[in-house]
Amino acid sequence: MKPPVAKRIPHPHELHGDVREDDYYWLKDKENPEVIQYLEEENRYYDEIMRPLEERTEQIYQSMIDRVPDSEADVPVQHGPYFYYSRMDKSKQYPIYARKRAENRGDLSEAQEEIVLDLNELANEDAYLSVTEQRINTDQTRLAYLENRDGTDRYTIFIKDLETGKRLADQIPDVFLFGSMEWSRCGEYIFYITVDEHQRPYQLWRHRLGTDTDQDEMIYEEKDSTFTVFIAKSQSGKFIFVESFSKTTSEVRLLDADSPLAPLQLIDERCDGIEYSVEHWGDDLLILTNEGAQNFQLLRCPLDDLNSRENVVAYKEEQYLLAVHPFRDALLVAGRENGLTQIWMLRDGALERMEWEDPLYTVSVLSNQSYEANEVLVEYESFLTPTTTYALNLQTGERQCLQVAPVSGEYDPSNYRQDHLWAVAEDGVKIPMTMVYQKDAFTQGPAPLILHGYGSYGANSDPHFSPYRLPALDNGIVFVTAQVRGGSEMGRSWYEDGKMQHKRNTFTDFIAAAKHLIEHKYTTPSQMAARGGSAGGLLVGGVANMGGELFQVIVPEVPFVDLVTTMLDTTIPLTTLEWDEWGDPREREDYFYMKSYSPYDNVEAKDYPHMYITTGLNDPRVGYWEPAKWVARLRALKTDDHTLVLKTNMGAGHFGKSGRFNHLREAAECYAFILDKIGVTQELKI
């Protein structure tokens, strides 16, 4: 079967005296039957290409299934008389959320389980299902949860009576997928955030239980199209914070959860470039802000005098503070130092860092814990250490291991290694890389290697344990993550140096990482794959143009590749929110800089690596037409005979199919393609 050829319809874009030809612009019209026909032809071609790899795909899939434990359960978190947790059964696609009533953790084994929400009962065979946030009211008799069945960001609030097990009549549509729903303390009202026609969360509403939604009252609207609005309840449960954000600026309003009809109270007016977040602790508000402190400083102000501010601790440039976790008897702060996640406890006016043994790790404070807790649950993991939950004694600082996540099958961490590597970018900056591999992977020389990257929005690519990675490691595959600029692994400046007019650093950092791995004989171009999703798809898509010769295969998943066209189209969901990340191409300087690295605009008549590209028809973040157009242009211009496939999920969005086994099946298909192209045979064993 020959690859599909998309028809070309001239559609020039003219701006700033420049013309960009866009012959595949017509693919944006989802209502055009020819568009659906083309995507389905690409899917048929994908199926044809993958058919010889079916046995390999099944082998990889089964090796992943073998690593699924018979049962998994989170460590229960106490809220009043109940302990809440989720669990997974090996035969199920989705988690089950449950609780037990007990006086203390020691009584849990004898307590009876009560199902709060079983997502498997909500699921409809292989159809899409996403349930994101869940909120239980103060007296713990009702559960509000967000549900979606088409892969968009438009969710519906449903409310379940936990005493009867039945859903209430209240249903609230068009609610954003996260940060969008909180109860008043009395349990009579739900506050929620709705999305506009572009799926931007922008309006805050108040709903009284038992009434029709047409009686709901809008109490705040974010009119600036470059901002979004979210809500979050304080750790104490006393306040609801209404947070307006752009990529560079924030503004927070306060609502007393005990007074749901009271007006909002503004904390600080928005000021361009100033970001801050708010929490409540005792008689004070805690404010984490970058005003006068690039890596954020922690302030406090009395509840009765919001204009009075003082430092909680002295500012230290090397500590990048990201979140505060106030409890009745202690204050924890989460952030980064030395390129790794950290947790500090406030002691005697200073931050005391929790220490860990591994050279690479990720640590976090579990969310939604009780303000009155005497012990706080902390999660820890590394490439070699399964997720481990500790109980932190807030009085003594001592840690007790409560659970190590089970790993099905044989697993001996001494058979694997994790390393911290450093490449040197073209401007002399050292770029960190994390690597995990089987201890004998390099005994026969350079090894097959998959290089991951993301590098946008200040998001971090931290070490994590995955049992599903073990079969690949056991077959000699090396996994490396390049922590390129655009993330914030090395602090806030790491993010600033990889966005806007510095964005090209993200691409050149990744290329420097690839060259380092080749020069130091970890791998070779014929054995190396690059992989990235969403903005990471932009990264590896740009690298395909700038340094494709370094890779045998490139895997851009739901890739953001038609940068300039998208950032000029304000009818596309979330476009206006992105100008502070990439630039506004209506401005001449931004336009030409963005065009210089946009993957779609820089496709050339030259050889490209093998490419495995995915998208979702209902994706609100990266329109399906971006990778579709890109693939069409690549097919028309590339001069090689390498394989290029486009897989479109016709009933899903940005995150692919729902359900654990569906995710694993998709992962197995991708691995089968990669391993085939980098020459890893089924017989390869270490």
Automatic annotation (TrEMBL):
Task: Give GO BP annotations, semicolon-separated.
Answer: proteolysis
One MF term in the entry's GO annotations: serine-type endopeptidase activity
The entry assigns this protein to a family as follows: Belongs to the peptidase S9A family.
Where does the record place the Peptidase S9A N-terminal domain? 4-404
UniProt xrefs under PANTHER family: PROLYL ENDOPEPTIDASE-LIKE (PTHR11757:SF19), PROTEASE FAMILY S9A OLIGOPEPTIDASE (PTHR11757)
The protein's UniProt keywords, in alphabetical order, are: Hydrolase, Protease, Serine protease
Species the sequence originates in: Sporosarcina ureilytica
Q: Which Pfam families match?
A: Peptidase_S9, Peptidase_S9_N
User: Mind telling me what this protein is named?
Assistant: Oligopeptidase B
Domain Peptidase S9 prolyl oligopeptidase catalytic, first and last residues per copy: 463-679
